[in-house]
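Lab meeting prep.
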Amino acid sequence: MAEELNASMSQNFIHDFIDGDIAQGGQYAGMTVHTRFPPEPNGYLHIGHCKALTIDFGTAEKYGGLCNLRMDDTNPSKEDMEYVEAIQEDIHWLGFDWGDRFFYASDYFPQMYEYAVELIKKGLAYVCELSPEEFKEHRGTIGVPATSPWRDRPIEESLDLFERMKNGEFENGKYTLRAKIDLASGNFNMRDPVIYRINHAHHHRQGDKWCIYPMYDFAHPIEDALEGITHSLCSLEFENHRPLYDWVAEHVSIPYHKPRQIEFARLGINHTVMSKRKLRQLVEEGRVSGWDDPRMPTLCGLRRRGYTPKAIRNFCDRVGVTKSDNTIEYAFLEYCLREDLNETAQRVMAVLRPVKLVITNYPAGQSETFEVENNPLRPEEGTHTVTFSRELWIEAEDFLPQPVPKYKRLYPNGPECRLKGAYLIKCVGYETDEKGNVTEIAAEYDPESRGGNPADGRKVKGATIHWVDAQTAVDAEVRLYDNLFSDPDPDAAGKDFLDCLNPDSLEVLTGCKVEAGLAQARPSDRFQFLRQGYFCADSKDSRPGRLVFNRSVSLKDSFKPQS
């Protein structure tokens, strides 16, 4: 697996930086490249996280280094062990592993507290009484310095108040601990930022032991330094936070060379949202069936829909690593999946909107079998057997009582059509119900055309259509998925993303007919339904006796790769 991942990691500007660090020596002389992936366990990983973890783990593997998995659990409000376990499962599914390098940021709370005390003693931090609203009022503007009436609070007083904050003597919002840096800095992140706040909330691991929690900008560099991280790879929104990252790393007494932060652009995909807050809202309001709803951009949702680890990794690598934000077409993600499934998925026949086809000149009570190739791209995978008899199921759209121009499928007295891998047939009539709906189609077959090739070599003008034997067909439910959002940019300013939801993102078809062999389909088994698309057996709802298939992606490709 490591060789495959290394081969897929293309050179990028991050690797150029690392190559330069190695070449210059100094603190990087003889180093082992050490990265980390630090998700917050307050939701499930989505495709945007996948780019970051591919960069973190892939970079470590490329350089023969190490990558830690760290749960950034410094904000107890929405964090839960459910998310911790789901994150681990998703990363393993993608093919990455952290070995014994699994950490929780909350394990460092004692050290972080001591480093905060150290900063106070050095005169580099102080307890502030400004409320959030007052903090904004004192922040200043471009060219106008911030102000802080508590900046000169005596060190001993700040030490006392900070300890009492830790001991739970004050309500939320009463005090914060701020770093003393530069109130006139052009980078507002350096204008005496808050590094600790009071939060009386139950922590999923620490319980009620702590009621003060470090801010991410304070915790992040300390965690990296304690774990020996050499290169801290972050998304681009942390670029303006890098001076603060470096300031913390330089002013606390961690006996380790300081990690280097490098930023890259986040992954944006049209027709979706990447905010965990918004994804959680979709789940909690019941607008989707859960975090693993196949319409969700979460990895568990994509997995349930039928996406493969290879397709997602290829997508992330092809998107590349840049310093400029851009939005990728969702169709490109589908292209990568289609490309993989075309190579690996077994071909089968399934009829989603069935109508009965009766071959009137085929002997009643007779049946025979045909061999259908499992994958034309992999002849070594052989064939599977399907049965054929007088009555079949075909797609309703493969018949019209009155043909439209250029229609080459079945209609009365129309052209001969091929039944996939079986015989040539010609429509001779049909029946309807009292409402005029077609209920049965009559056709005659050419017994000398077994395999779909006429004995006299005549040209067949009609189309090839797929079918399922009515005697042995198995019923199934099929779920057709489309983009969750009809608007390509539901996250745009001024829009309510809920107003952009696609009302036609899910169509459920019942009474579908599939080959008998699919009765034993296991959850997550993937197939190409001929002429329909790529489908997988639903990992939660499908079982013997109640088959449920999700459409992973259609056969039609709307994405046009650049040559």
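Slide two material, second protein:
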Amino acid sequence: MEELKNNEGEEKKSLNFIEQIVVKDLAEGKNDGRIQTRFPPEPNGYLHIGHAKAICMDFGIAEKYNGVCNLRFDDTNPTKENVEYVDAIKEDIKWLGFQWGNEYYASDYFQQLWDFAVELIKEGKAYIDEQTAEQIAEQKGTPTQAGTNSPYRDRPIEENLALFEKMNSGELEEGSMVLRAKIDMANSNMHFRDPIIYRIVKTPHHRTGDKWKAYPMYDFAHGQSDFFEGVTHSLCTLEFVPHRPLYDLFIDWLKKGEDLNDHRSRQYEFNKLNLNYTLMSKRNLLLMVNEKMVSGWDDPRMPTLCAFRRRGYSPESIRKFVDKIGYTTFDALNEFSLLESAVRDDLNQRSTRVSAVINPLKLIITNYPEGQVEEMEAINNPEDETAGTHTIEFSRELWIERDDFMEEAPKKFFRLSIDKEVRLKNAYIIKCTGVKKNAEGEIEEVYAEYDPTSKSGMEGANRKVKGTLHWLSCAHCLPAEVRMYDRLWKVENPRDELSRLQKEGLTPKDAMMQMMNPDSLQILNNCYVEKFVQDMPALTYLQFQRIGYFNVDPDSTAGHLVFNKTVGLKDSWNKEQNKK
């Protein structure tokens, strides 16, 4: 019996705190033992890496406990929303490996929310306020000082009803009136101080067109939508903690005091995913796209899921990273290098190994027969026995990396230098015999001799040398464009730095330009890859041996191959920062 208790304790420790709540609710029979969650994005931009954490929580809880997670678009602000974002959000969720049970929109409930607002007016729980936004904010008071009542707070019910209809008729201007819930202007929770629940917006809606001119605010629409759908666990990030009492109050008002204790939506909050060297506000990301500071939402330097996909991150690596950092009730700034480490570990298992030379230097093996070509066997993925092999041609003239040669090398330089031996991967051992330089003294060609008995697989191949280089046959490889990506921002916390620079008077764009890393993108055009990659589809995961992980960019064609650097084989960023 004692052993059983210990096992239960260990299992509980392995669950995050949200899972522990779910297990407890199921044990107590709340909501008839149902688990229903929802992922409620606003379709006003593309999803970013921060959303991935919420997606993994919302869909993961439903998946783990035999529930359902619905996708509900919070489309209550038509000025910022469109179908492009709706489609992109769906694609990103599917890419991460999740599927929603049902697809809903807050706009599905516009009539029900309107009817609910009308009932609140009739019950004296809501009123039309004609003050400006500034006046309303001024009357809110402070957390330690009570607010003051609006002069319109006690407006007659019939007058409120008539004005509410006018808010939706189109005859009133935006900002001229709002509907406020009548709660408590002295409440210590600022969200209870007569919050705005409806405002006028005249922009046509992407689903309902011109039918509505009065739109519900998030706090009014969100909880009710959860309740209409039967959501059991409404999982939010920590900024919604002070909103939770209002969430509960509106649901209580909706059901008019009916006992909902075991049959209601409950809101729980967890910490956001914050990363250093990353800016994730959709407002700022939209500005960057509109101002052409990046090539688009899927620019591989962006923190959007579509950008990570284009850069070569796997969905599995993102899910593993989210699981690794976990869920807590306090915010933290996570290291971007932790995400890259998860990507590196995952791609090591799934990437096809190929040879590529991104900074070429010609190597001529002077004693290798001219015109002779050999096919060498290359393993596609040493981590996957089922991945098979492919062949790569070997000849007299090869490309090697310029960084792999030094004319006068230090003692611990285990690559190619004068009179030293190295192995060419999957091929022969060679010894450097000399170089050819141009008029400026730059090395144009390196000369070497090979040992014909040292081919991989031969008896002579057992001879030990300290360095192994990758290579490409000059006559049997393809030219390629390689895009080398790095951190977009040169400051560790760009959000705080952006705020500081704006306080100094800089525009958001100028502040961002000042923070951007000038080396975040380098396009290398004088690169070569082996022919094996020519017909690989876009987004194929690759490891350029001894260089890093790359993928095939969607821009790539058979006549113009384009590859993106996903992440290096090692964490070079932190190493460079520690030098500074």
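Talking points for slide two:
The chain is about 30% helix and 25% strand.
The chain has a mean pLDDT of 93.
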